[in-house]
Structure prediction request, 313 residues.
Amino acid sequence: MYESREHLQTLTEIRSLMERSSKFLSLSGLSGVSAGIVALIGATVVYMRLRTDVFDLLSYQQLDLYDNADHQEIRSFLVTVAIVVLVMALLSGSYFTIRKAKRQGLSVWNASSKRMIWALAVPLITGGIVCLALLHYNLLWLSFPTTLIFYGLALLNGSKYTVRDVESLAYCEIILGLLSLFWPGYNLLTWAVGFGVLHIAYGLTMYYKYERNTA
Amino acid sequence: MKDLLAQFNKAFESKARLNIMSVLMVNDSMSFNAFKELLGLTDGNLATHLRALEESGYVAVQKQFIGRKPNTTYSATDAGRQAFSDHLTALEEFIRNM
Prediction:
């Protein structure tokens, strides 16, 4: 009986090593929370600037009312906000993940994190270029669901190299993005839910599931 | 019982060697330093185990330079993969028959 337990333990250890060596598990839940907060702030800034009814914001008809100069201005405003939100979310997200890796005594820049970043980057950059094209043709409202859909696809791709739970977040983002396509009046709202609320909910779930005891 | 134990591979008697092989089963290749971090072994200890696995023909070594720094990576050979999965099967059988 004693020997059997020893062999079982060996199998458990092998399983854990296989997982630890092939996946990036230092991704912190707090990274999700901070990215979500940054996104909510960004959405609020856009809402305040455009000062339209939240349920009617950026609908196709609404944007038709603006003339070309307005379009130009709104476009550069949205691009600026989007870039600031992206950079801030990445910075704060990286901070918490690096902190977690340090506490675990692991390096952040290893084979598995490189694989994860590459898996995330390809769909994300593709989506970014698609959005630039949409903006180029003045299809502002379409760029909101597009960011959600491509972000979801990026997460789905990256989830293979990190905690499995990212997969659920990915499906939520994709579904929300697709719904948003057929619901053009609610673009800013769905965007805020996708990048803000979902990130915060996911981050808190991760934090309580994996980190509360070790933090 | 003796029959089952005969299936256990001598090369994997040490836990460190079994651990090295499990890492190489899911990673195409792994550097010496990555092993060190993952398994928490000392340089000398790790090198001895890796050399033993190399001599059994279960692990292949690739030496190259990144700039001027030597970088040694290890990967599992086909024989190593086969031996590892046979060993796991034997472990499973053993537990099932207890």
In short: Chain B has a mean pLDDT of 85.
